[in-house]
Design goal:
With 238 residues, the chain is an alpha+beta fold. It has one domain. Helices cover 25% and strands 24% of the residues. The chain has five helices and eleven strands. The protein has a seven-stranded mixed sheet, with helices on both faces. It has a two-stranded antiparallel ribbon with strand order 3-4. Strands 10-11 form a two-stranded antiparallel sheet. A hairpin with a 2-residue loop joins β3 and β4. α1 packs across α5 and α3 packs across α4. It is globular and about 50 Å long. It starts with 16 loop residues before the first helix and ends with a helix.
Length: 238
């Protein structure tokens, strides 16, 4: 299904973005749990209708995946992402604010997917809060996907994140597109770096498949078009 404009007529204000947002992140979590993630990983969605910045879909590594009391050892589905469009040198600080996720079995956060809301973009302080949180994930080597289909606000949060990281203009998206999706894979090895897959989006165009990294060696194909279509069908959108 081609991308719709959820913030202008004929959809808005008759159909509510908050409802679709919750449905879409649920569809993404369902795809990860039901078809993509190895058995020792799981995804959870979080939605909150406030100005607080929250993860939309979080992926955890569960050290206690079992079946009938026995540990399951199943090889994950192998998938190689395309070569990243950009590889940005980075330095990961020893100390940075850490957000702890309490989870049964001592699960560890490995990836986050953010579907941008209008509240994330409506003023400088909310944009800074969103960007700081994204930087926090990357500094902690948590992979990240940011999806922005908000047509009611024109700020490009990827470019603001690049400026926050002081990485240089060459890593910004040219033309400062208002709609975009970006995947980030932070790698902490001999040469610390962040691999980046930026894609500009347009209303009436299809959505891309982006790599969702679980670690430096394992990535999954996150099909945004498939999950978006599923969410539109659940909400009976044209």
């Amino acid at each position: 299904m081609p991308l719709l404009d959820h913030f202008h007529a004929p959809l808005a204000p008759r159909r509510h973005w908050d409802s679709f947002h919750a449905t879409w992140v649920g569809a993404i979590a369902d795809l990860l749990n039901n078809k993509l993630l190895p058995p020792d990983y799981f995804a959870e969605e979080t939605t909150q209708a406030t100005r607080h910045v929250e993860i939309d879909v979080a992926t955890f590594k569960d050290g206690d995946a079992t079946a009938n009391g026995a540990r399951v050892a199943v090889a994950p589905r192998l998938w190689s992402p395309p070569a990243p469009a950009l590889v940005m040198p980075s330095v990961f600080p020893v100390d940075f604010e850490v957000r702890v996720f309490a989870s049964e079995g001592g699960a560890t956060l490995v990836a986050a997917i953010e579907v941008v809301s209008p509240a994330n973009k409506d003023r400088p302080e909310t944009r800074r809060a969103f960007v700081a949180k994204c930087a926090n994930y990357l500094y902690q080597t948590v992979s990240l996907v940011v999806i922005d289909i908000v047509t009611a606000r024109q700020s490009n949060l990827h470019n603001e994140l690049i400026r926050f990281l002081q990485a240089g203009e060459s890593f910004e998206m040219p033309g400062n597109p208002g709609l975009y999706a970006v995947a980030y894979r932070p790698i902490k090895r001999e040469n610390e770096q962040i691999e980046i897959w930026p894609v500009s989006l347009s209303v009436a165009q299809s959505l891309p498949v982006l790599p969702l990294a679980l670690n430096a060696d394992l990535s999954l194909p996150l099909d945004l078009e498939l999950t978006y279509t599923d969410a539109c069908q659940r909400r009976r959108l044209p």
